[in-house]
Amino acid sequence: MCCGPSLSALLAACADFGTYPFAALARAAFIATTLLDDLEAEGVFTTEDRARFIAGLGLVTGELHHDFHALAPQAFLARYGHLRPGTYDILSPATTKPPPTTTSTSPPAAPHPPAQPPAFTPHPPPSWRPSKKLVEREGLDWDARQMLDFAAGAIRGREAGKFAFTAHLSAALSGIRTLGERLDVSADDLSHTDVATLTALTGERSHDTALLARAAEAGRARYARSRTLTLPPAADRRQ
Exposed e or buried b for every residue in 32-56, given b needs 16+ CB within 10 A? Predict the structure, then answer.
């Protein structure tokens, strides 16, 4: 009943192959989004151009919308059920089962035709050509097409990386909840417990239950202290 090598390995993999790579992907996507903001501000992209560009990237959101209409409920949840409302919140359970069928006297709604799966076609909008002069003006050592390719790849990478990372993270959270159920430790207590405590469990029920209780109490105290702090507002990044 201890954390076990599989759960410990999963947590380690989330850090080594999830957290660190995703931090880099998120930073690249932030830069890409800032570039698109600037291109729109310069009048190279219109709001509609930008929306079409993003829609052509084949992001997870578009695939989810397509699969929601194309897949059976259980198959859909097998692929997307790990997308919790709170990605890192153990109190937010994964959705693994379809909701129960309810009886209704209302006529059934007309079926929604499945959307076509989005394709990766980030074609430049008609107003893209002036960006060549803009790139030259800013002294950048890449051309306009390379900028477009970078923005597309960075945004797609962030979305795909987050989707894969959160699948493993969700599995780890579900495993920790199962561990808590075996030890009669609530998910709320586990939400205040640090990972180091989980990996230090021995498999001896009385020892592990007492260790988790102490860790939860200490975690609640830390959380209460953090609630007394008020951070200053963040400055505008353009200032």
Answer: beebbeebeeeebbeeebbeebbeb
Instruction: Provide the terminal-to-terminal Cα distance of the chain, rounded to the nearest Å.
Output: 53
- Tens of pLDDT, residue by residue, the chain (239 residues): 456 557 788 888 888 888 888 999 999 999 999 989 988 888 888 888 888 888 888 888 888 888 998 999 989 998 998 988 888 899 988 887 665 554 444 444 444 444 444 444 555 555 566 667 777 787 877 777 888 889 999 999 999 999 999 998 998 999 999 999 999 999 999 999 998 898 888 889 999 999 999 999 999 999 999 999 888 887 655 54
8 Å CB contact between 54 and 155: yes
Q: Is 234 left (phi over 0), alpha (psi -120 to 50) or beta?
A: beta
C-beta of residue 179 within 8 angstroms of C-beta of residue 155:
no
Q: Sign of the C-alpha dihedral, residues 185, 188, 189, 190?
A: positive
Sign of CA dihedral 183, 198, 212, 82: negative
The per-residue DSSP string of 95-142 comes to --SPPPP---SSPPPPPPPPPPPP----PPPGGGTTHHHHHHHHT-SS
Token pair, residue 132, equals 């060549």
